[in-house]
Amino acid sequence: MSSLVCHQFPYGSDNYGVLVHDADSGQTACIDAGDAKATLAALNDKGWQLSHLLITHHHSDHTAGLMDIKQATGCAVIGPVQRSSAIKGIDQHVDDNHTFEFAGRQVKAIHTPGHTTDMINFYFSDDKLVFTGDTLFSMGCGRLFEGDAAMMLASVAKLNALPGDTLVYCAHEYTATNAKFATAVDPDNKVLAQRATEVGKLREQGEPTVPSLLSLEQQTNPFLRTRDAGILKALGMEGADEVAVFAELRERRNGY
Ligand SMILES: [Zn+2]
């Protein structure tokens, strides 16, 4: 089995799409479909044929180009079972722990509600890749539009349980602001300070900060560190319930 090749491309103001290609089978998957033109241009650049389109959630910056991409490529569309707004054009609906085949390997759907109730993340265990949509960001997490803090905490805990050497692809370039916020609530974290500096340099050069290793998220992402003594102290919440800490972090990040 050859390893998958990922090609990340920007669209909209701060979205990322990703093409995932297997040279042996020639199959290519795309994660999300916010902008058909950008997806088709990326496929054209690489000379790859789209076989699968994987949809994380119903928000239009992840779905607006779905029908055009499907029509142009004839790809199979895999996406979440309906829990909130319907997504038109899905061929195969997946729920938590469902698996499907892509390029000779099993891909697992992980249901991670919180940002939306329908959110599905895609885990390629053989290749140590996870596509986290708007659930887990680099040094952050998604806003709670349809779920609550307890729901989102349980969702990020599912991702936190994956192997540390899993590469995390999230759907937005929010890392610079996330790094500033993380530093404010985790001021004595040396790994975080170093990462924040690196992120600043990358963004100055117009470079992406996504993807990142899960092990680095575990050391620097406050939403995965809701039991960290330094963060609890900075929040003035020593001894507080983990859900309350998560809710406080999310609330503070909303106003940041
Ligand atoms: Zn969203």
Would you write up a description of this structure?
The protein is 34% helix and 23% strand. By secondary structure, the protein is an alpha/beta fold. The chain has a six-stranded mixed β-sheet, with helices on one face. A six-stranded mixed β-sheet has the order 7-8-9-10-13-14. Strands 11-12 form a two-stranded antiparallel sheet. It starts with a strand and ends with a helix. 47% of the residues are buried.
Task: Supply the key terms.
alpha/beta, about 260 residues, six-stranded mixed sheet, binds zinc ion
Distance between the termini: 45 Å
> Could you state the oligomeric state of the chains shown?
single chain
Number of strands: 14
User: For the CA atoms, what is the radius of gyration?
Assistant: 18 Å
> Biggest sheet: strands side by side, in what order?
1-2-3-4-5-6
Elements, N to C (H/E): EEEHEHHEEEEEEEEHEHHEHHH
Give the amount of beta strand, in percent: 15-25%
> Structural class of the helices, strands and pairings?
alpha/beta
Report mean pLDDT, rounded to a whole number.
Answer: 97
Low-confidence stretches: none
Shape: globular
- Counted by DSSP, the helix tally is 9
